[in-house]
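Worked problem 6 (solution included).
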Amino acid sequence: MSDYFSDRENGPRARTEQSIPLVVWTGLVAVVQGLLNSGAFGLRFPERCPDGQAICGCDTGSLGAAIAAEMPGLAWPLETTRETGEGGFFSQQEPFAPDTLLILDFIEFVHAVTAKPLPGKYHEYFSHHHLSFDQTAGQDDFRATVNRMFARNGVAYEMVSTGRIVRVLPPVLGEELRRTAFDSGDRTLDNMLEECRTKFSDRNPLVRREALERLWDAWERLKSMADPNDKKRSVKIILDAMAGEPALRARLEAEAQELTSIGNSHLIRHSEVSQVPVIDADQVDYLFHRLFAMIKLMLKKK
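Solution. The predicted structure is:
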């Protein structure tokens, strides 16, 4: 089911959660266990019937070995709790979820190896069906399940038809990034902005931070475009074009100075020990949104 009453009444939940919460991980583990029980991994990791070698299920040993090799750090069987303490009488189980990026990698792995099992001949002696598979249908079902879990829990990721997981961008900024065509007249600047757009959609927060750094590089280049030989004069020309009304012109100049100061002091454009890093993903989103809005206005008015 995908059309719940609360969604119809209140609208979908905002997709702002950038870490996979425990409840979603627990649900994903249940889904994967269900796929395993149904034989959905048998196409890639087949268990063979001793009588004729038809596929009758999944070879869990082979599946586990593949997961161990491709998902370093992910325990198999999958864990939703871990023992704490030193063991023995005083140890206890506490809820556990792996790192978000590892979970997202695992979801892509599952999508690649799952297929809908289609029961065929029933083998009475071994009490099992021989199976054939519809991989497209199985992947479609899994993708819909994952995306429904993400949406219901406000998780800011989505699995697209290729099986890759992408980040759901903040609503206003995401729409602007999708529809903005970069045509500044400077190919280098356009390429820099396109790189920012691509990296900012990445699920890895470190890559999104690279997008922020690159956006500040684009900002510095843009400020020099009106007069490459005199940056201060260039900025004045651009600001004059952005607003003729004195009060707003003054506010835009103050904003330009503040943005430059942020880039110079927060480990965005420089790497001195004194620089303050921007690590929080929500702060990265905020700063990217703020500077992108300024750049877009500049490009429109230049």
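Discussion: Residues 158 and 166 are 5 Å apart (CA to CA).
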